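Much of our argument rests on the idea that a fold can be written as discrete symbols. Part of our work consisted of pairing the sequence of a single chain with a tokenised description of its backbone. No coordinates are needed to read the tokens, only the vocabulary itself. The record that follows shows the chain in one-letter code together with its fold in token form.
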Amino acid sequence: MYVLGFNAYLHDSAACIVKDGEVLAFAEEERFTRKKHTFEFPENAVRFCLDFAGIQLAEVAQVGFFWNPHKEILYKWVPFFRFMPYSLSLFKRNAAINPFMKRITSMLFAKKALFSLFDGSTKRTAPRFHFVDHHKAHAASCYLVSPFDEAAIFVADGYAEDNSTLMAYGRGSTIDRLETVRFPVSLGQLYGAITEYLGFKICNGEGKVMALASFGEPKYEDLFDRIVLPTNNGQYKFDFSYLGYQHYGLLKTVSDKFIRETAPIRKPESEFQQVYMDVAASLQQSLEKHYFRMLNVLYERTKCPNLCLAGGMVLNSVANGKILENTPFENVFIQPAANDAGSSLGAAMYLYHEHAENPRRVPLNHAYGGPSFTDEQVEAALAKSELGYRRSEAVEKETAKLIADGNIVGWFQGRMEFGPRALGNRSILADPRKAEMKDILNEKVKHRESFRPFAPSIKEERLSEYFESDDPAPYMLKVYRIRPEKLSVIPATAHVDGTGRVQSVSKEVNTRYYKLIDEFEKLTGVPVVVNTSFNVRGEPIVCTPEDAIKCFLSTHFDYLVMGDFIAKKPS
């Protein structure tokens, strides 16, 4: 039984194909179109999934779309009337209501768009199409591919059709809702509102705010305590006098009252004053406080030691790294594409378990679901370029030597990752022992803000030797404190607060990347390399050999390693 899931028209469009409960392929549309966070229909991602499975759309039994627009239409009028007359401003030209109506209309016709592009079906053989509630898709995306037979489930993002937060309990193949928080009350939307206030883009710059928070002090703790007011059963409410998104959408995300108590809205690309760092630190502290409070309530409701997480808010890796020390949970599974891209996976998994006669659970232990390329394809791309290249008989060993000698290397291997993190198949790698490497990567390679850190990739069994945790973090979604005695050993991976957003690498899951790190350790005694995504600022992670070559030629790093080939720029 084949099930296709996809998401579109909001952000991070993607598609996933599932066969008999096993995820075969999943990919994000941005990697094909080169438009970061694209909301367009994922034609390329759907085609890749069908081609990888070797089927036509007519052979798919069920199709799931990640959103229920009918439900949203019924609910969103409630906050609209609640916040009149301010909400009438949404009808202004170029205001949020116009994209909203366009989005809803596109979602209502998502089935027609799919069938018109992939016409290998007839009315008799066409798969059944379903709108799947957004938070059901998120919950399914983490629990139904987790290693647990039962788990507490927590989903949080900016907004869904009517909710912003879901607490649920999974057992076997069923998911039961326990508690929801209704939009416009939303910790995720609050984080996004302050992201816009700080001069970044919502649904894009939240990670920058998280990094910036380490440079500040929570001097506005009292302010955020007045904004977010906890109630019973893990619920909370907002003092909306400090916010603007409920009135004006993205036209104005915070109120004049918020600005009076902090500072004027920061202009994008302007210098960072300390006040903005302090606001970021206060926001992060508030998020963690209420995040952990809700998780503790969830544990009391379920008494289950296992926790599954999904939704854009749980990309907050700083908070995730503190869950075990702030809650009674013992095991945490975070779906690698916790953002909306992962809801395509969730829509497919939800429908499979709804409609299969004897559904089976197949845990997902990797994020490598995208396209791969043969050595012949790689060499053909290199031959068309101006690069000098050669084939290596020991590519991991030679690459480790290049990194140990101070070179920065683009590393392109196997199937492309799914989700926002590069996990050793589309990565740029460097030596963690050189403190100056962080500034070199930010300035000459990534062309991004100097305050943003880089991730350490470490052999899984050595994790607790370098970090103050032994809980595996394979998807780079947890931040751990680096042990004090190791800070001087891997300074390029250390953030200003002595932490690192770690990736633990398993030999069984990614053999080639593990072997590279192992070879680096043989040369240096350090089982860690710096890992950052293979892209430049404003672009998605590379997908094809041609993408990798283009990125390599436009940036200042030294070698490109694709498959068994090592390439160098012309002198």
